[in-house]
Amino acid sequence: xxxxxxxxxxxxxxxxxxxxxxxxxxxxxxxxxxxxxxxxxxxxxxxxxxxxxxxxxxxxxxxxxxxxxxxxxxxxxxxxxxxxxxxxxxxxxxxxxxxxxxxxxxxxxxxxxxxxxxxxxxxxxxxxxxxxxxxxxxxxxxxxxxxxxxxxxxxxxxxxxxxxxxxxxxxxxxxxxxxxxxxxxxxxxxxxxxxxxxxxxxxxxxx
Length: 207
What we know:
It is a multi-pass membrane protein. The protein is mainly α.
């Protein structure tokens, strides 16, 4: 029995690439953070996302994913919490002001906050649960989770850096307060739009 299946490795890398580089709550917020705070100040946010996804993947590997199978209500609670927190973040982004503000008025997401956010990030849960159940890099479920955690970190960190970097490159263009306000409102709306799959599921259960 081998620890790692080399034949399944390309699929794992491709899955991590596609899921981490495409739009979602993390990348939308990183783009907005790059614009509003610059790349250097966004680094703790970037690092927290990467570590948060790794910890989430490892937690699924040690059995947390099974809890959702045996107690489906837990996933509903998670979805409701995700919707509430993402709406709050959308409001914070949408009401952001100028790039230059007084010290202490605004700040990027902190390292530990970015880690904690992954636990209510619906896309992060989709990533790790799908990886745990459909990608078989190892015959051992826990070892499979460890392997995918490493891949998510190695592939995902450069991908999310692109979003923060792109936002930073846009700072000069968006130095005008009116343009920045339009951008932040657009980012807030994108964040809200990312919730529609969860909202449809919740409404379907309530009907």
